Amino acid sequence: MLKMSILAALLATALPFAAQAQEQAQDKGADTVVATVNGTPITLGEMIVMKQAASQDPQMAELPDPALYEMMLDQLVQQTAVAGAGKENAGVRAQLEIQRRNTLASAAIAEVTKAEPTDQEIQAAYDKLFADAKPTTEYSAAHILVDTEEKAKEIKAKLDGGADFGTLAEQNSTGPSGPNKGDLGWFSADQMVKPFADAVAAMEKGQISDPVQTEFGWHVIKLNDTRMREAPKLEDVRDQIAQMVLRERVQAEIGRLTAAAKVEKVEGIDPALLNKTELLETE
Q1: Is the pLDDT of residue 162 over 60?
Q2: pTM
Q3: C-alpha dihedral sign at 271, 277, 280, 283
Q4: Which of 73, 78, 155, 161 is the most buried (most CB within 10 A)?
């Protein structure tokens, strides 16, 4: 019974302090000062923003709050002390103003992208991209690119005689695909220059072309395979479509705000002044 009485007394004593601590925590706001350095305040809001940035680092994210608090506060104290020794000039003021506007602009954009795209928006964007899309022929091919027609004919003769295409590509091709045996992967006709695309479209699977001239030089082409590319299913590209909707939403808001802004450009400013970095040193 005595032990129970002592426990009850301890609880009765501790509860008011716990309630007081909770009330104090609730009273704290972003402007709450957590330290001062030579009279300059460091606020809880600055600590929270710093923690948000630190959370991107896996090692920092694993630290318990007390350790992270002390570490960040020490960093901000050092930053504030060193900043106090800094000299403010036109360059510093310009950087601070750009950072201020960038932060405000980022906050405005964050509001625009806060709401996830709706199913209707995603469907509309998908239909806009793919509703009228027709199956497209894709080609898998390799080539050997050389500088002259004579060299291309020489290579074609070797291939007709049974030489290995990939080996000749590695040995002779001046294009970036040479080290990869000339392989170009899969592509559609509109991804290639017209003479190359026309030659590939006229070839049969496994065929090697006569020399083909383009603006890049002379090509000897081998067609490996063809296939038909259908429009992707919505579920397969949903995430990409959602990101596209958000980008378009952001661009539309930027356009709206810029169009609504009163912009007055000063005439007569010499663009050569951009090179006068000494102007940044003025008080």
Answers
A1: yes
A2: 0.60
A3: negative
A4: 155
